[in-house]
Amino acid sequence: MFFKTKKNITRIFVTGLVLSLVLSGCGTKSASTDSQKTENGDKIKIGLAGPFTGAIAETGGTIKKAVELATEQVNEAGGINGKQVELIEADDKADPKESASIANKFVADPTVLGVLANYTSSCTLAAAPVYNRVGLSHIAYGSTSPAVTAAGPFTYRDITTDAYDGEFVAQWTIDEGYKKIAILYENDDYGKGLADVYNKKITELGAKAVMQEPYNLGETKDFSAILTKLKNAGPDALFIAGQYNEAAMIVKQGKRLGITLPVFGSNGLYSDALIQLGGAEAEGIRVIGAFHSTADYPEAKAFIDSYKTKWGQEPDIWAAFAYDAANIMFTAVKNAGEDRKKINDWLTTLKDFKGATGITTFDQNGDCLKQPLKLIIKNGKFEIYNK
């Protein structure tokens, strides 16, 4: 469900980027708190929480760089309503307990007007009750669990849900002709939710999951027992519902056991770190994502160019999602002012925001829809998949 009434178009110019957005006037999220105006002095304070250390620090690093780039650009363009943005960074280590603790610190500081958090679904689900209880809007830039949909009226995400992505990859797998599929999944909200959606869809399409086995993010290092079980199950394809670190270990250790199955994954596998860690064994892995370095629309090209200029490397999909989340939040503050409730009210009206990952419109649950790209690792890099 999307909003129907349009307001006038607002354009925000930052270095190398033009973000166009069409605003609607009748959001269905209702703020649960009274207006919370703050006196921020000469700064606009925005929180950022992500996995900057720990098992998925590579991804956390690109997220941090992207948000710092967005902050630098908006400040160089004059800031927000004449004030400079101050980014307050916090490392959640991909640990739900850490993310909840960070949320408590952010909500307790009345000068923090909005938060960019989190990457993992488990962290978002742990922190969301805190943000929603107090009334501080947060935008998740990597959390895809279907459970996030019902997290509360102050919770948003600019990435599609696994309820959509899981079905998309399942259809792709079946379209490729595979009927007996092994599912390995990260034993948390993200992995379990994605695996369940995928399993349900392939079953509806006449295929079968010959095994569905969990592992632990950042903890499982030896997959030999799981892979032996997989080999004995006789699948013709493998779906990994998890992150790039474990996926790299799975394909490398599987190769030593003689397992050379076609591998499918969702956007958790879409990271150059998978190629670096998986090496030759990562060749042929198929994933989905809403962003690719060859994107030719203006917002993506401007982001890629500015990121490469500042950091000397190409951005990944998570950098793009974080960058868009930052610019959405900056735009909300610009239009709503330094008031938490009004910022949230404005976010409920977000429609057709053009960013690096395409167009973002929030529905009544703070979710969005974006058509994913089919990608494959070929010759040591992600390429658009063409059968």
Description:
Helix 4 (about 160-175) crosses helix 5 (about 190-205), helix 7 packs parallel to helix 8 (about 270-280) and helix 10 packs across helix 11 (about 340-345). A 5-stranded parallel beta sheet has the order 4-3-5-6-7, with helices on both faces. Strands 9-8-10-11 form a 4-stranded parallel beta sheet, sandwiched between helices. The protein folds into 2 domains: about 5-160 and about 295-360, Response regulator (Rossmann fold, 3-Layer(aba) Sandwich), CATH 3.40.50; about 165-290, Rossmann fold (3-Layer(aba) Sandwich), CATH 3.40.50. The protein has 11 helices and 17 strands. Helices cover about 40% and strands about 25% of the residues. The model is unreliable at about 1-40 (pLDDT under 50). Helix 1 (about 55-75) links the parallel strand 3 and strand 4. The protein is of the alpha/beta class and about 375 residues long.
Short précis:
This protein has 387 residues and is an alpha/beta fold. The protein has eleven helices and 17 strands.
Helical content class: 25-40%
Structural class: alpha/beta
Oligomer status: single chain
Please give the alpha-carbon distance between the first and last residues: 33 Å
Low-pLDDT runs of 5+ residues are 1-38
Strand order of the largest sheet: 4-3-5-6-7
Q: How big is the Rg?
A: 20 Å
What overall geometry do the principal axes of the alpha carbons give? globular
Beta-strand residue percentage: 15-25%
Task: Average the pLDDT over all residues and give the rounded result.
Answer: 90
> What order do the SSEs take from the amino end to the carboxyl end, as H and E?
EEEHEHEHEEHEHEHEHEHEHHHEEEEE
Task: Assign the CATH superfamily of the largest domain.
Answer: Response regulator
Largest sheet, in brief, is: 5 strands, parallel
The figure for the number of domains is 2
Strand element count:
17
What is the CATH architecture term of the largest domain? Answer: 3-Layer(aba) Sandwich
Give me the CATH fold name of the largest domain: Rossmann fold
Total DSSP helices: 11
CATH class of the largest domain: Alpha Beta
